[in-house]
Amino acid sequence: MKEGIFQSYENEIQALEEEIRLLTEKYEDMRQESTFFSDEEILKAIKSLQEETQGETKGRESPSDLKAQLESLETDLSFLMEFTGFHFTSHSKKTVEKTQNRTLQKHRLSGKCHSLPFQVEFQLLEMKKDEKVSAVVSDLSIIMESREDSNVSKFVSRTEECGDLLTFFRSLSTYAEWYEHRRHTFLHFK
User: Fold this and answer.
1) CA distance 89 to 84
2) Bridge partners of 91?
3) Neighbours of 156 (CB within 10 A)
4) Residue 140 to residues 137, 143, 168, 170, 188, Cα–Cα distance (Å)
5) CB 114 within 8 A of CB 179
6) How high is the pLDDT of residue 108?
7) pLDDT per 10-residue tile (average), the chain, 190 residues
8) How far apart are the C-alpha atoms of 33 and 86, rounded to whole Å?
9) FRET label pair with 67: which of 44, 52, 140, 167, CA 20 to 30 Å apart?
10) Where are the chain's structural domains?
11) CB count in 10 Å sphere of residue 93
């Protein structure tokens, strides 16, 4: 029985010695591969790669290209402002918390929709899971002048409770457009 135990130990020792020999050979091969290039050659390769990258970056971002891109974006923005009636006058964003998978930001928007001024404050929590990003709006606060319509203040309260920004902007756009129509109609009869 003792001979069986000793034999199993001998077999394990031989297997470990073979593994050590293979790892040593692999280490020596890797060391030799790394000595094929001198430090100067490695630095030259890095420098040439950096120059190529900078040349490509400079080529893509010429001032005339940037100006044309800016003009295109301004045209798109003015079209969207005219189409939706929203004119944003200010926006501020402050990052409250940032980790690898999660970002919490505080936003403040102010502007006018047709002739109705508004201000919106909210927190946006973006969470990244695998390759997907999800966003959640919280602490929504809407400030609007609801001059003569109490339904607007009720709508704003409900929207703040639900935290549904998309519904707010859609409804505000429709309401403000019809508000303008009513205002022009009443001015016509005065």
Assistant:
1) 15
2) 109
3) 20
4) 7, 10, 11, 16, 38
5) yes
6) 92
7) 77 89 80 58 70 60 79 86 85 86 90 88 88 86 75 83 86 85 82
8) 63
9) 52
10) 1-35, 85-189
11) 10
